[in-house]
Amino acid sequence: MLNWIDERIPLRYAAFFVVVALWVVSALQLVVGQVSLIWVLLLSALVILGVHDLQQTKHAILRNYPIIGHLRFLLEFIRPELRQYFIEGDSEAVPFSRSQRSLVYARAKGDSDKRPFGTQLDVRAVGYEWLTHSMSPSEIESHDFKVAVGGSQCEQPYQISLFNVSAMSFGALSANAIMALNKGAKKGGFAHDTGEGSISRYHREHGGDLIWEIGSGYFGCRNDDGTFSAERFVQNALSPQVKMIEIKLSQGAKPGHGGVLPGPKVTPEIAEARGVPVGVDCVSPASHSSFSTPTELLQFIQKLRELCGGKPVGFKLCVGHPWEWFGIAKAMQKTEIYPDFIVVDGSEGGTGAAPVEFTDHMGMPMLEGLRLVHNTLVGLKLRKQIRLGASGKIISGFDVMRTLALGADWCNSARGFMFALGCIQAQTCHTGNCPTGVTTQDPKRQIALVVPSKADRVFNFHHQTLESVKEMLQATGLQSPSELRLHHIMRRVSEHEIQNLSDLMQSVPGGALLESQSLEGLFAKYWEASSPDSFQLTT
């Protein structure tokens, strides 16, 4: 019975319908003098408010929860302690703090992100980090930083923004969310990663630049048996909207774990994008069927680069066994085939649902994974040829600055852009009942997310985040993000001691892996035991 009611008269509109019913009854009673005029006027005001909530385009919460949705904004208005208790609950139960979300919301809305009374962070806490500034600040003309992606084997290099939308699939996100992200990317001149769910009609609606992610299910380029289809790949890859091809080896949320989209959730639109049957379980295997060794991976990269007309082709991974990554690096030496880019995904990232043990204890965090990949490429004298992207809880301008200092050329953000769309971390993504329309496939719920309004917020968030990067770069006295190094960041390691990141993290000399220099750390332990012909240890 409740399901029948929710299909035709959504329960989230209950407060509005109750007010309308009370207003009708009270209006009739007013005629015979049984109720006060003030009471009828109050109910009339609430009815008008509810109608306005349903028609306005600024707040998805109010469109999905007319009248009663105002309670959330009331709680936001009162004391921060009550706001944290009622809206956020236990701080350990949600992935991001109030201050981080507030920063994104302010920037997305185009509001000022300035605040009084100093830092809200504990500068005496172990792990606190800060940028060193210069007595001679620089002047930078534009915040529109771009990075050229495409090595010597690439025929169509791409100028990628310093800050882009990370991989989130249609199916995980609603159609309206995908359209808002892509429209915002088009307006701001940055890239939108499709996620492994492939390219849907909603990605194409507004023509924003796409990074097409290809996972182990080969969605959008698969044969009926789930293997890779070169013919179907070409049909998507040659689209002018597709700027880069990204092979997903693993993701931060659940590295080494496959997935299944149950048949009832495989709608005609999802089936169209992925190239799978409607209503049939959609399986993402844990590993790829097109390659089984590091050398075969590089050969697959070369194959895709030829099929797509020389566009940049690379891969994304959350670093796991170090010797597997070393094997890929050695395969580059052996085959002289080089990816145009590598995206390092941190285990702390991930917007999709995943087993708790995987999110908490599988994979290498971005800080260590990015540094390991960067050092390896430096040691092989390949760093200038291969670009590095990074993702994993990157929200603020400082997050971008630190990631670049660790060795990245650009950054991707998933949850930051979800916040810009209006995500409130209700953590009901897997239920289909997202209150803001971001992660639901329910057409009645996602209609609350108004594409033009949210696209503007996506654009604003990107714009203001890079503006903050520009301002911090100027404060450090640098002229370009590429000049950032570990020595620009300090960290408190104890109550009475601070150290420079350059003293805390390993740096490999250029060419060290080619010249058999004395190696340290993971390199000393696993470099010689890794192989370009196997993902297994050789000893």
Description:
- The chain is α/β, with parallel strands linked by helices and 539 residues long.
- The protein has two domains: 2-70; 146-257 and 290-472 and 504-526, Aldolase class I (TIM Barrel), CATH 3.20.20.
- It contains 21 helices and 15 strands.
- The protein has helices spanning 2-8, 14-31, 37-55, 60-64, 70-77, 80-88, 98-109, 175-188, 201-204, 230-237, 268-274, 294-307, 322-335, 356-361, 366-379, 397-406, 415-421, 443-446, 451-476, 501-504, 521-526, and strands at 129-131, 146-149, 158-161, 163-165, 192-193, 210-214, 242-248, 259-261, 282-284, 313-317, 341-345, 387-391, 410-413, 489-494, 497-500.
- It has an eight-stranded parallel beta sheet with strand order 4-13-12-11-10-7-6-5. Strands 1-14-15 form a three-stranded antiparallel beta sheet. A two-stranded antiparallel ribbon has the order 2-3.
- A hairpin with an 8-residue loop joins strand 2 (146-149) and strand 3.
- Helix 2 (14-31) runs antiparallel to helix 3 (37-55), helix 7 (98-109) packs across helix 17 (415-421) and helix 17 crosses helix 19.
- Residues 1-8 and 79-95 have low confidence and may be disordered.
